[in-house]
Amino acid sequence: MTEQKSNKKTEEQNKNIKIVKDATCTFCGCVCDDMELHVDLDEKRIIKAKNACVLGRAWFAEHTIEDAPAALIDGKEVSVEEAVEEAAQTLVKAKFPITYGLSDTTSEAQKQAVAITDYIKGNIDTTTSVCHGPSGLAFQGVGESTSTLGEVKNRADLVIYWGGNPAESHPRHFGRYAVTPKGMFTPNGKKDRTIVLVDVRKTKSAGVADILIRPKPGKDFEVLWALRALVKGISISTDIEKETGVPLEVLTDLVERMKNCRFGVLFFGMGLTMTRGRHFNSGALLALATDLNEYTHFVAKPVRGHGNVTGADNVVSWQTGYPFGVNFSRGYPRFNPGEFTTVDTLSNGDADAAMIIASDPGSNFPKKAIEHLKNIPVVVLDTKSTDTTKLAHVAFKTATYGINTGGTVYRMDDVSIPLRPAFESPFPDDETILKAIKKRVHELILKKNDSRGASGEAKVAAAVNPL
Amino acid sequence: MLIPGRSAKQGTSLNQGKLKEEYKEVTSTLEMNTDDMKKIGLVDGDKVRLSNDIGETVVSCIGKKPEDLSEGVLFIPYGPPSSQLMESDTAGSGMPLSKHMMVDVEKIKN
Ligand code: SF4
């Protein structure tokens, strides 16, 4: 052991350390649940995160307890109760309130957010609309041949990544699920698999690829459609190379590999959904996977970004029937991407109040949407200060999920995983605040209905909706 | 054509805080094909103005080998500068075209 290492060890021994085994990292959609966290209980920080990747280590190391107020109204410190009251009043007063974000919080909190939006007859949307929203549309149109990451690890012998760079965005996707791990029918790990990477750029992920395919930017649909044709035995002209940048031999070789593998998987990223073609691109890829099931077992999975964006899709789906972009203004849920998705409700100037949970549209939305956000009252729940908290009318600082709070998150393959918190936070968590807002919103709505003489109906509502 | 995306550095600096210097620096560094850079007389670290019908932003650029980043393609980690250039029309999908932005690149004279 080097001197430096042993010093570090004695340093750790002198501290009040708690070890949390099998903790879960919620930074990205891989949701690795094999973390061993070393927590300095005096300083309230995680000093070591064993098994975490570079992103996970930064996630655990940087989420310390900030010396900041738990709640602000227009930048002035207030009590959490006052902020809850103001948030509820703001939302109830609005004619077109929107709820947005939800990908970095627990499913328990997501459930509360849907209930609030239902009460205020608002509009609920999640960050899915600006990441895999187009894939959500494609799922409805084409269907999904799906599997868990466990099946991929144990069975897949052909792994294709399309339009993504997991080496930098999901660093353990390769090692834990799809490229190097040894599985039941893949006992030799990477040696038993062929890895194909399709991307317009040569990224850091190229290092693991046996085959690298680089279409021209914006030509994914054409490549996917050509592959579908070849799978069905339809001949394709060599001109395909001029159009897409990919030679016909490369496509023919890939089709042979796809048809002859034992278990194939297509992982796709935002290189498909955020470019020209959007849901047509995802749809073409899903259709290709379905076509291949005539020959072998083939699945397709989106590689999801935030820790619980998959949970947001699940929760909003089981509560409203639709995954994102849902509007309750008529008293029942309606789904219309392009109208009820947040970039649109903001850019078109429809929204007159917003509640943003664990997300930062103030930084990463188009300019026009951000301008509108600056002109309406915004309620924000976030663990850190962001451009969105800066423009908030009411801002809550909240505890971090998976570090300070328990709860449930969904991995990118729709598997639900429980969280094990490491240390307590002085700030309330999203679920607690949202429950309080929900209670107050409900009271205010009942009062409003009472004053309009709708007391009978309101009382029935109160009876069937115990808070 | 500009392609904003994720990078490991963008991910780690994001955890420190989005209002911190490192995140700002990472999200205002543009990767560009070295041949394209030569054509407009740019060296690593030079400032360029990216603009389109939506807006403009000033970032610094670093070169990437032509075999890694094709001619005419630019890459930048997601962040406030890339949002300045993003179209708000989602064509009925909810998704703005976030990875397919046609922009003009212009060297800023020191
Ligand atoms: S791959 Fe994702 S979930 Fe796993 S440790 Fe890294 S950041 Fe965390």
Describe, in plain words, how this protein is organized in 3D.
The complex is a heterodimer of chains A (467) and B (110). Chain A has 467 residues and is an alpha/beta fold. Chain A is 40% helix and 18% strand. Chain A has a nine-stranded mixed β-sheet, with helices on one face. A five-stranded parallel β-sheet of chain A has the order 10-9-8-11-12. A three-stranded antiparallel β-sheet of chain A has the order 1-2-3. Chain B has a six-stranded mixed β-sheet. The two termini of chain B are 25 Å apart. In chain B, 23% of the residues lie in helices and 28% in strands. The mean pLDDT of chain B is 83. Chain B has 110 residues and is an alpha/beta fold. Iron/sulfur cluster is lined by residues 25, 27-28, 30-32, 52-53, 55-56, 170-172 of chain A.
Give a quick precis of the structure.
The complex is a heterodimer of chains A (467) and B (110). Chain A has 467 residues and is of the alpha/beta class.
**Total helical elements of chain A:** 20
What's the CATH C level of chain B?
Mainly Beta
Main beta sheet of chain B, described? 6 strands, mixed
Helix fraction of chain A by DSSP (H/I, runs of at least 4): 40-55%
Rg estimate of chain B, integer Å: 14 Å
Largest sheet of chain A: 9 strands, mixed
Q: Describe the strand arrangement of the main beta sheet of chain B, using strand numbers.
A: 1-5-2-4-3-6
The chain-level mean pLDDT of chain A equals: 91
List the helices and strands and how they pair.
The complex is a heterodimer of chains A (about 475) and B (about 110).
Chain A: H1 3-13, E1 17-23, E2 35-40, E3 45-50, H2 54-62, E4 71-73, E5 76-77, H3 80-93, E6 97-101, H4 107-119, E7 123-126, H5 133-142, H6 149-155, E8 158-162, H7 166-169, H8 173-178, E9 194-198, E10 211-213, H9 220-231, H10 240-244, H11 248-260, E11 263-268, H12 270-273, H13 278-292, E12 297-302, H14 309-320, E13 326-327, E14 334-335, H15 342-347, E15 353-357, H16 361-364, H17 367-374, E16 378-382, H18 387-390, E17 394-397, E18 407-410, E19 416-419, H19 430-451, H20 455-464
Parallel strand pairs in A: 6-7, 6-15, 8-9, 8-11, 9-10, 11-12, 15-16, 16-17
Antiparallel strand pairs in A: 1-2, 2-3, 4-5, 4-17, 7-13, 13-14, 18-19
Chain B: E1 2-5, H1 8-16, H2 21-26, E2 29-33, H3 34-39, E3 47-51, E4 56-64, E5 74-77, H4 80-83, E6 104-107
Parallel strand pairs in B: 1-5, 2-4
Antiparallel strand pairs in B: 2-5, 3-4, 3-6
